[in-house]
Design goal:
Elements (H helix, E strand, L loop, with lengths): L1 E5 L4 H12 L3 E6 L7 H10 L4 E4 L5 H10 L2 E6 L6 H6 L1 H21 L4 E7 L22 H19 L4 E7 L1 E3 L18 H10 L5 E4 L11 E2 L1 E3 H17 L2 E7 L5 E2 H12 L5 E4 L8 E2 L4 H7 L7 H14 L7
The protein binds nicotinamide-adenine-dinucleotide and uridine-diphosphate-N-acetylglucosamine.
Uridine-diphosphate-N-acetylglucosamine binds next to helix 7 and strand 8.
């Protein structure tokens, strides 16, 4: 029996495919490479000794999906495919609704047709909107501050409705906090197109000399040192959370939202300092104005992931920084070497 992994060539998808193979599952990747490279498939094979089956195409294309479900014995689906840049979603909301929302509808229609009832969805901490209190628990109120976040919230709502209509489904809504790090082989990692929006890829590109200086967005938040605090999680821990989610879906029915984070918050300056220590590279920075839409502090209560899935993050910030740097150092231009 196989697991369809949409977006399996992307940052989180590729690490999840590795962990699925390590756990004895048979992942089948569907990806259109709109934000990834086919080289990833070679790298996964190098790490695991197994080449995952690949279908190149668009998840919005029902004929493409139907072909996969006809050829492969798909038992469950992990749906990563989608766009994820908050700023871009504000400029091109339709593009985000089309790719994120429509792809999920089409995928669920094909799942229904083929009787596939186990569905793991990539949600995000962004569904908590601007939190009033931290740590964030799954039962807290949901909202969104941008079109990207709205696509995640609408899809979560849709999946809750789908479960209400069919109680034999197993649906897992995984709310990721801030994934960073890379596989420790240095063969797969995060490879953002253009100038990175997120903190860690920006820092590693400053350290490698592709960018001159980091801009720190605000140092007047009510936090430990005035800079924004986030719950960074090693992408390999996150990937292992998906293996646990699939194991849960194999044994249970239900629709559950689960936070995947460490429960620890680190400020931007704490991350800069940890990274400098881990890499031995200086990261010069300037304090800039706050970035629109940013919150002061955001970290999760990971209790539910432990009690429901038996999962908790293993890696700390030092390992996250070491592995992020190892990936960047070995692949100064990402997959485009
Ligand atoms: P990514 O861009 O690296 O991976 C997404 C993959 O999906 C890419 O390989 C891309 O080519 C593919 N894809 C996009 N649209 C497609 C389509 N229509 N058909 C087929 N393939 C398509 O992103 P990621 O960081 O690995 O994120 C994966 C998922 O997790 C996304 O849904 C994202 O919103 C969610 N998420 C990511 C983060 C994060 O910080 N990276 C945080 C929270 C949630
Ligand atoms: C952002 C998105 C979030 C998305 C997540 C993963 C916004 C407002 N939020 O989260 O919806 O789920 O990415 O893709 O875009 N920082 C700097 N300088 C930089 C970059 C970041 O100081 O060049 C700071 C930010 O202000 C923040 C922290 O670093 O305090 C983390 O930022 P980032 O990596 O972009 O993640 P989030 O903003 O938490």
């Amino acid at each position: 029996m196989s697991i369809l992994v949409t977006g399996g060539a992307g940052f989180i998808g590729s690490h999840t495919v590795v962990e699925l193979i390590n756990a004895g599952f048979e992942p089948v990747i569907a990806d259109n490479f709109s934000n990834s490279s086919p080289v990833v498939i070679d790298r996964i094979e190098k790490i695991t000794g197994k080449r995952p089956t690949l279908y190149t195409g668009d998840v919005r294309d029902v004929a493409f999906l139907t072909d996969i479900f006809e050829k492969e014995n798909i038992e469950s689906v992990i749906h990563f495919a989608g766009y994820k840049a908050v700023g871009e979603s504000c400029e091109k909301p339709l593009m985000y609704f089309d790719n994120n929302f429509i792809s999920t509808i089409k995928l669920l229609e094909v799942c229904e047709k083929f009787g596939v009832k186990k569905f793991v969805f990539s949600s995000s901490a962004t569904v908590y909107g601007i939190p009033e209190t931290v740590p964030l628990e799954e039962g807290m109120p949901l909202s969104c501050t941008n079109p990207y976040g709205r696509t995640k919230l609408v899809i979560e709502d849709m999946l809750r409705d789908i479960y209400k209509a069919d109680n034999s489904m197993s649906i897992m809504l995984l709310r990721y906090f801030n994934p960073i790090g890379a596989h420790e082989s240095g063969l797969i990692g995060e490879d953002p197109a253009g100038i990175p929006n997120n903190l860690l890829p920006y820092i590693t590109q400053v350290a490698i000399g592709r960018l001159a200086r980091l801009g720190v967005f605000g140092n007047d938040y009510p936090t430990v040192d005035g800079t924004g605090v986030r719950d960074y999680i090693h992408v390999v821990d996150l990937a292992k959370g998906h293996v646990k989610a699939i194991e849960w879906a194999d044994k249970n029915t239900g629709c559950e939202a689960v936070n995947l984070g460490t429960g620890n918050g680190y400020s931007v300056l704490q991350i800069v300092s940890s990274f400098e220590k881990a890499s031995g590279m200086p990261v010069p920075y300037d304090i800039k104005p706050r970035r629109d839409g940013d919150v002061a502090e955001n970290f999760c209560d990971p209790t539910k992931a432990k009690s429901l899935l038996g999962w908790q993050a293993e890696y700390g910030i030092e390992k996250m920084c070491i592995d992020s740097w190892n990936w960047q150092k070995n692949n100064p231009n990402g997959y485009n070497n």
